[in-house]
Amino acid sequence: MIPRRRFLQAAAASTVAAALPAALPAALPAAPAHATPVPEGTLTDLGPASVASPLGNAEFVGGVLYAGSRGLSPNVVGAYDLAEDSVTAHFDIPTGIGVWAMCKTGTDVYVGTHSKSDLYKLDTVAGTLTKVASVPDHFIWSLAASPDGKVYLGTSEPGKVKEYDPATGVVRDLGEAAPGEAYVRAVQADDRYVYAGVGANAHLIAIDRATGERRDLLPPELADRDWVSSMSVSDTHIAGGMNSLAELLILSKSDPSDHKVVKATAPGEKYIVSVLIHDGYAYFAGRPTGTFYRCRLDSGELEVLGVPYFEAATHRILAHEGRIYGVQDNAVFVYDPETGAIDYRNLVQRGFRAAPEEPMSVHSDGRRVYVGGKSGADIHDLATGEVTRLAIPGEPKTMLTLGHTTYLGVYTQAALYAHRSGQAEAELLARAGNQQDRPRDLAYDARTGLIVMPSQPEPGHMNGALTLYSRRTGEYTVQRPVVERQTVYSVATRHGTAYLGTLIQEGLGLPPVTTTARLAAYDLVRRKLLWELEPLPGARSIISLSLGVLNLYGISSTGEVFEFDLLRKKVTRTLKVGNRGSDLHVVGRVAYCTDGDKVYKIDLVTFTVRPIAEGLAGQWFGGEPKLALDPSRKALFGVKGRDLVRIAITGRR
């Protein structure tokens, strides 16, 4: 664990936080008998929920690396001066929730944001930042500059290519790179063409900059691949990273039929996340292992150069004065081709601004609250107020404490981690495999001793899955599909049965083939689906399930709550609660949920609702509100803005 004050000053280390038993929760000290009860809905501010400094991209101008952040408010571009070995300036990016895309023309750096998608110009000579364009697209994934100074944008959804002309300020829409595909994840440009790497079905499109004519350069034998998600071009070659088989495509610009496919060799490698053609080689980085590779353009001969930081994602690879720089979550690594040495430089230690990020998950074990974010979680000690940083290679999306162990469902690859109180590191227990990507929930079934983790498939892939992990034996199995052509999103368990709520979206970028979310029951002993039905007409997802004594309760993404009679297998009542759904917690004869702004209490006898707290305006990553129940059942935890808050509850009608 790293105290937050040290996290802001020093390199993040792979340490983990102690977790306390859920079965025997160590709750906050009891209030004296004479203490005045805290009114239900009372908020206690516990400070910033998760403080981080995740990077999304970077560019060199002279001896300064300009690095853009993700998920902060506001996001920033930090200027890391190599000669001074420090971050000497920050430039606030006032819009958007992150910087994925950067490129340069001369001494100007262009910065692309997402949600809202704006284009900024950073004049590095004058030290000024100006918004120069806005586009309606959800994401600006990638930027590239042509030799004549035009800037090209790769966007989603759908996957389009756009051109910004700095001379005129005009944005020209070049249309969908591959009609029907949702993402242009990579763009590059030369004096004649702009190249677009497309997914969720792979294409490599060359668009004539003058005429708009386009052709697909992807070799026919690779037509079944998912993505061309990263790319680099030289005068003679194009190199594109393909998912999800961790392949690098190298092809000749003069004759695309002259090509080779190089597969990354680290065990379990899935993605090629960044590519650079330089000095006769294609340098590239893999995920999830974090391995750094290079291969010769002429022969395809592959070298493994090392693992700069285990399982870290490398967002950009750049060359500067004979060395190769890789931009990772809050750091850069530096590879020297002459010596083979890799140097690792944490930019927070060198002055890069760390700030509250948009949280992704929240969980309480009774003594501590865990707030998941990018590359780890902040852990709040409720007794002392101390905040420590848990480094995890990925994004904790869901958490569960059993006994002395806290389990974490981590994106990517639907990984399950565990940490036992007092241990120095978290342990990787399982990866779902089966083309799974995002864990969506965790539940434990005492009869079978199984932890149940539903997951969403990788972009472009069908059918979510259930990972069933045995706490007794350490063995796990993956059931896919479970509910055909849907993702299992939520789970609640009892007596050997897992109740499942679904999402109609399978892998991102794949159009849904079903129209309504389902409720299903799965036998954990016989490993078979028992039944399924559609509890809410037209619902896109059932994002949380919670069991009462006789009934099962669920909530949709639009805030509609339903009561399901488990004996009669029918919905008995529905209730509209807020405009968005969240985690739903049944406590006796009441239940609690949030829409991100209000916290609601539902009377399960009368099936009526009232807000108990308002004005949270929680800034959750992806806009999905979360809510944690303390094991004492006397408090909930959520966020107000980006601060963690304790919300007092009674658990009574």
UniProtKB/TrEMBL annotation:
Signal peptide residue numbers: 1-35
Keywords on record: Signal
PROSITE patterns for the chain: TAT
Keyword DNA damage in record: no
Domain of life: Bacteria
Annotated protein name in UniProt: WD40 repeat domain-containing protein
Organism: Nonomuraea harbinensis
